[in-house]
Amino acid sequence: MRVAQKTGSHRVQRVWEGVTIRAVHGELVTLAVAELEPNVVVPEHQHVNEQIGLVLSGSATFTAGGERVELTAGGTYRLPANVPHEVEAGPGGAVFVESFSPIREDWKALPEEATPRLRWPAE
């Protein structure tokens, strides 16, 4: 059983071009830091996981269920399970902390990013 991991010991994985994550998977929930490069669009998709997040830095526009909302640092979001949604990062990119329940089994097999450029935490 792993109780804790040191900063910098998490694998950086690519979800889409310009989108990387560092994830911790529990038995019932996945917690991740997601980093989006400037102006990247996460294409419309859906998943069985409820998703709740907090914008740590930057900005992004979320579109889900016919609603379009721009969020900046400190903004929060909730995406219900199975609802199609997309995200567009602002001109400065964006960093989110996100939780998913149930866990993101599909992320466990994602490839590791060879040369990650991490935006958070700032050095």
Note down, in words, how this protein is organized.
It is a single chain. By secondary structure, the protein is mainly β. 0% of the residues lie in helices and 53% in strands. It is built from no helices and eight strands. Strands 1, 2, 3, 4, 5, 6, 7 and 8 form an eight-stranded antiparallel beta sheet that branches. Strand 1 and strand 2 (19-25) form a beta hairpin. The radius of gyration is 14 Å and the shape is globular. The model has no long low-confidence stretch (mean pLDDT 92).
Strand content: over 45%
Based on Cα principal axes, name the global outline: globular
Order of helical and strand elements: EEEEEEEE
Secondary-structure-derived class: mainly beta
Radius of gyration: 14 Å
Low-pLDDT residue spans: none
Distance between the termini: 30 Å
The multimeric state of the shown protein is single chain
Which key phrases capture this entry?
mainly beta, 8-stranded antiparallel β-sheet, single chain, globular, 123 residues
Secondary-structure blueprint:
Blueprint: E1 13-16, E2 19-25, E3 30-36, E4 41-45, E5 50-64, E6 67-72, E7 76-79, E8 85-101
Antiparallel strand pairs: 1-2, 2-3, 3-8, 4-8, 5-6, 5-7, 5-8
Task: Summarize the structure in short.
This protein is globular. The termini are far apart.
